[in-house]
Amino acid sequence: MGDNDSSSRPFNELDQAKGKRVIIKLKGGEEINGILKSFDQHLNIWLEDADENSAQKSRKLGDVLVRGDNIILISPSK
Amino acid sequence: MGDNDSSSRPFNELDQAKGKRVIIKLKGGEEINGILKSFDQHLNIWLEDADENSAQKSRKLGDVLVRGDNIILISPSK
Amino acid sequence: MGDNDSSSRPFNELDQAKGKRVIIKLKGGEEINGILKSFDQHLNIWLEDADENSAQKSRKLGDVLVRGDNIILISPSK
Amino acid sequence: MGDNDSSSRPFNELDQAKGKRVIIKLKGGEEINGILKSFDQHLNIWLEDADENSAQKSRKLGDVLVRGDNIILISPSK
Amino acid sequence: MGDNDSSSRPFNELDQAKGKRVIIKLKGGEEINGILKSFDQHLNIWLEDADENSAQKSRKLGDVLVRGDNIILISPSK
Amino acid sequence: MGDNDSSSRPFNELDQAKGKRVIIKLKGGEEINGILKSFDQHLNIWLEDADENSAQKSRKLGDVLVRGDNIILISPSK
Amino acid sequence: MGDNDSSSRPFNELDQAKGKRVIIKLKGGEEINGILKSFDQHLNIWLEDADENSAQKSRKLGDVLVRGDNIILISPSK
Description:
With 78 residues, chain A is mostly beta strands.
């Protein structure tokens, strides 16, 4: 949309974060933190070495598929 | 999206968990735990030997179809 | 998705439950219990001899169409 | 889905209830009760001689179009 | 769906109410009351001489476009 | 839907309000008030000289894109 | 919709804000503030040098992808 240069699209930017640690904020308030392995056009995401953190609890998830429609934002760790 | 190698997509990763026990976290707060038998492109899932656990109750479900749009995340048991 | 054998898809598994009693858990907290007569690709479901049970009330519905987008899970009775 | 006999689909079953009184339970908790005149593939419904009942109020609606995405279930009156 | 006679579909019934006063109940609890000028396949609606009424307030809107996905039901005034 | 005269559709009516001040009521309770510059088929809207008003706060936004799926209604100022 | 001049569509207006600082208001109440790098047809957005601000907390995010379906409005900073 207004992009004639496909390299500048949001999903192409996220593609640069593969293999790196990302923070994912979910609509339910939880945050998932893990290594970005892959994602698809719905923003379904596969993470490795993932943890879940919320006001209620923290736990280790290991491998996890996060369904894209729950995601508010994804940010590569600095 | 940014994947030219289809083997690296989230649903292909999940495919490796078939026949194994998975934990599914739902939007309503429940968690379903069972053996992953099959899933489709909407992430509708068929589990065997499944249990449902929430703050309110726990129960044995046996076979169960979970509708994909309720799912927050799916994680293969370690 | 990751299924080359169509017989292993969730909706094919559910098809085996036709004519049997199923429990349907809805997003609003109600559960509908009835004999599975038919369903479509949106998981709209037709039940016979159905009851509705919630924390608020229980009632006999008889024949009922349940709109698929309300459904959390469907489990054949054991 | 798993139906090779189209006559057994949920919407075909509902078609048999045309001209009869049905109860429609809505996501907001209201129930609409009226004579089923017609419906479409989104489950938008036209009723005649309809009433709306909720914990808050009851009122006569007469003719009414109910938008399908609000519907939890529809049950023909016994 | 189950209609071979297109004149009996819900939107065709609503078409008969053009030029008449209708009551629209919205998901947020408000009701909009006005003269039905036009609508489209998403049930987006254009009203003239419209009022908005809710438990919180009442106000005159005049011309108004109501986005279809907010609508619970539409009923022509008796 | 039931329109053979395209000039009578809701979005064509809204088109007449371009360049004029409109009030947009959002699902979250806020109202945005500004000059309607453009809109698309999802009812995404571009306003100029816009203000946001809610029970919590009021602020000047200037130019703003409002995503269509948040919109309850749009009414041209009288 | 009612636009024969594509330069006047909302997404084309937003395209003019690339490289500039924008404020994004989300459905959950948070606001994200950052430099608009790119966006797509779903309004998924890539920001650089971004901060998140809510009643609960403020934090620096750096690069971030915001999923479009969470967005209420986007306004270029004045």
